[in-house]
Each structure stands twice: as C-alpha cells, then as structure tokens.
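Write out this protein's structure.
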Amino acid sequence: MFRKLLIRLTLLNAGVIAVLFFFLIAGVYLFAQYDINRHSKNFLSRVAADVNAGRRPPMFPGPPPEPPPPGSPAELQLGRPAPPPDDDLPRPVIFYAKLDPAGAIVATSSTLPLSGAQLETLVQLAGQKSEPSSQITFQGATYFYYSVERQDAPGRLLVFQNFERERGVFRTVMTALAVIGVFCFIASLFGSLFLARRAMKPIQQSWAQQRDFLADASHELRTPLAVMQASLDVIESNPNELVAEQTQWLSNIGESVKSMAVLVESLLFLARIDSMQHPIDKKTFALDLAIANATTPYIPLAATKKINLTTDLEPNLIFMGDECRIKQVVGILLDNAIRHTPAGGEISVLLQRLNRIAQLTVTDTGEGIPIAHLQKIFDRFYQVDPSRNKGGTGLGLSIAKCIIETHTGKIQTISKVGAGTTFLIQLPLITSHKELPAS
C-alpha cells in the first residue's frame, strides 16, 4: 500500500512540475512571438512612414555610385573596373515595394534579397491576406510585411522584413529550453521521490501508531469485557440464587463497567485533542489551592500502602487555565507514583514560582524508569513492562502531556532505576491584574 502511495506521490509531484514547465515554455514562446511581431510592426510602420515621406531610412544604403566614364582619370587610376558585390556579405533583411492600384510593382528599395519574380510572388502572397500586417512563409523563409497606402501616388506600399536570423535565434532558445526541460523533468523525478519518501515517513509512523492504538485499545477493552462475560455466566448458571448471594459477581461487573467508562472517557479526550477540539475551559484560579485539593484524596490512599505523601506549595500563584484538567494531571501523576512506589517509600509534591513560571514537581522513591523508556512513556498505551501491569491503561501520562501542552506548558521526566522518578511541569503564570481577562 505504501509503495503504491509513494509511486503516486512521486508521479503526481513530477507531473505537476512537468506541467508547470510546459506552461513556462509555452508562455515564453507565445510572449516572444507576440513581442517580436509587435516590435516588427512598429518598426516597419516607421520605415513605411519614412518611405512615404521621401526620407531614406537609415537601414537602406544610398544609391550606388556611378561608374567612372571610359578613359577618365578615375578609371585610369583604378586600372580596373569596380569589383562585383561579394555574395558572402549579409543580404538586406528589410526591403519594400511600391504597387500601383492594379497591384503591379512600380518601385522597390535600392537593395533586394530576392529576384524580381520572387518579389512578385511574395507581393501576391501578401495581397491574399486581409490583415495589414502579418507573417508569410516563402521558400522556407519567414517574412513579416506591413501594408500602407502610398502618399506619393495611388497604390500601396509593402515593407518586408526577413525573420530568418531572429527565428534562428528563437529556435535555438526554444530548443535549449526544451532540452533543459527534459533534464529538469528527470531531475524532478528523483527530487519528487526524495520528497515523497520524506512525506511518507510521518504517514507511515502515524499509520503504525494508529494500528498499535487500535490493537491496544481492543486489548484494554477485552479484559473488562471478559470479566463481565465470566461473571454473567456464573450468575446465569445459578438462577435460583438471590441477588445478595451474587454480590461478588455483580461487583466484578460494576468494576469492569467503571474501568471501561474511564478508558472510553480517556479515548474520547485524546480524540478531541487530535481533532483540535480542545475540551479546555480556561479561567483564572489559584494554582496552589487547586493542587492542594487534587492531592488531598491521595493522602489516605498512600497511607494504606505505607507511603508518606508530603506537599510544599507556594501560595498566591494565579494561573489561567482549566482547573479540572490541571487537577486531573496531578491525579494522574500521583496515581502513577503510588502504583510504582513500594511500601515505606515517599512521594513529594512541590510547587514554586520561577520568575513568571510555576514549576510543579512530583517525586517518588519508586522503582524508576530505564533510560531507554523515558522518551516513550508519554506514548499512548505504552507501558515499560506490560507483564507487570499494575492497573494502568497506559493513557494517563499521554493525557497529562496533552493537557499541559494545551496550556502552553512543558512536562519532563527524570528517573533512575531503583532510585525513583521525578515529573517536572512548568506552566506560565499571570503576574499582574492587566493580564486578567475582562469580566
């Protein structure tokens, strides 16, 4: 499945890049064609205006000099007639022809790149077009023409420009762009594969976490369901007994229902956190009083296990957040500490101000957590040693971390095997009345 998704992402990304590059080349081509035609039309219109006004445009040479008469000093001085024009010299790219009302050529520019018959054919091709300016392909060459009424006599004036040099440069540029485009597409395939693999890593990780999450949730729900089913089987096997005689089995069912309710509530809370629907009701309250109230119910519970639970809370720490959720975090940490601290151990809860930060520390002298597991204890359903499960579902620390991070706080763990564990929580405080919300 992931391989197919990787290939699809790679091809999709490379395809998008190829389409964008195609539009880039097409845009360059169309814009260049439009710009060349626009400049040619403007330029030829100025040439036509000069010709109609009787001025010689700068690109047209003057009339050729008259050859010296026979026997003149000039001819004797040269000693030979003037050499014929060199065929290797560049031929003119701009020329014109004056037409009479019937369309016959009556005058041309002083230099022509075409023979008389070729010029007549080119003039006829231009006459077949309805546009006053356009392109014509003639004998493998491209010409741009501009047609205007003559001012010196009835008829029309046609000015032509040979586009072969421009088109040669244009073809070279477009060929280079196409070749570069092919190499860029090949490079984009490798780049897209690299990006797709990087994009797939969090997807694969999320998929694995979701798969493990469902497996762990199913496992946690299976145990209370199995207890309930076994208890119901016992009750049904003794239909003649009174309810008072079935107290043990009914108690088992009740405890299983409570366990499932807690698990479902925890799953629902995490689902809301994941969907950005934070079930947090933030108000201002005294953080020290809230922690004291959350700690009180666990003091007798710790005493039953011969664990000494002490508190040291700095007073007058005003905090903006959800008081019930903060109490829930304290309960999770204390429940975790009591379950993993042997008889005769100690648990301490310390709250102190550090500038604008309230630091809550919960320390126990329990069994500790190996270093290899410290980065994973906040994962959902994660347990350091599942074979030594002491009543937890593996969701408590994950919920505690979500609550603290929702309050823009931080939670860290320091632990040493055999020496105990310390959970360190830092929360931002309200230090002045200006920070209190308006009532």
